[in-house]
Design goal:
- The chain has about 300 residues and is an alpha/beta fold.
- It is built from nine helices and 15 strands.
- The strands form five sheets. Strands 5-4-1-6-11-8-12 form a seven-stranded mixed β-sheet, with helices on both faces. It has a two-stranded antiparallel ribbon with strand order 2-3. Strands 7-13 form a two-stranded antiparallel ribbon.
- It starts with a strand and ends with a strand.
- The mean pLDDT is about 90.
Amino acid sequence: MLKGIILIGGPLKGTRFRPLSMEIPKPLFPVAGFPMIYHHIEALSKVPEMKEIMLIGFYQPNAALSKFISSTMQQFKIHIRYLQEYTGLGTAGGLYHFRDQIQSGGSDMFFVLNADVCGDFPLQEMLNFHKQHSGTSASHFTIMGTEATRQQSLNYGCMAENKSSHEVLHYVEKPETFISTTINCGIYLFSKDIFNHIAMAFHENHQQQETHSYSTSFPQMCKESIFLEKDIFKPLAGTGKLFVYHTTKFWSQLKSAGAAIYANRHYLSIYHKTHPDWLAQNGAGKPTLIEDVYIHPTADVHPSAKVLYLR
């Protein structure tokens, strides 16, 4: 039995995705005609053993999010629910806070996907890789990785690995100097043992906060605020429990408004294989289409128009 977790974050001042997220939550911003996390849910729903998808974040429940969850549940015939954090708990804190709900029903493994990534999402291939390494460690964890240039890698989590076993030997989040061209895609597959490691980070954070509670120089944070990247992966590297699955398929982050243009173009290209019926077609009495174009069913485009994708 598998579950899928999508970390959708929450409203933050000064977000790099503005102005696109001024009127709609970033996870629901349309990319290639559908909300950003629609593509995540579609990919998760195609994994045969998937039983439930959870959205974790600290957005206030709203009509747009509720409507989206209801419609995607009906379309993909899978249970989806939103778990609201009382504040931003980090990429691992929310998982730990809702650990009972995630483990309910006897879930052995679960995917975790950051909402602000896009790509082909080869989740079944990642699951097969994960199972192949089950003999190495009964409780192990897999990070999806891809290749970047030396300069690009400094903006991501970087992994040094054993090339034969693909064990992660060293992990550094946004290093100051070059570590590796293998970067973290923000897509993970965990066994439930990950909660033991998050618990250790939680108690360590708690002790640090108690020790420095009267210090003005020590940053005061929520005691449950835990991050996979710096609190979990870094100490797990080199223990024989953390592995990297490499993908050469399309992947990108959606951190800024400009990145949405790049993501749109690639998703529209993917539609040729996955959903050719979603792409608008040229024909008599129709607008002239140049390259891949998605036209929303509610849109009215004049037949004399030329529609092209700006690069």
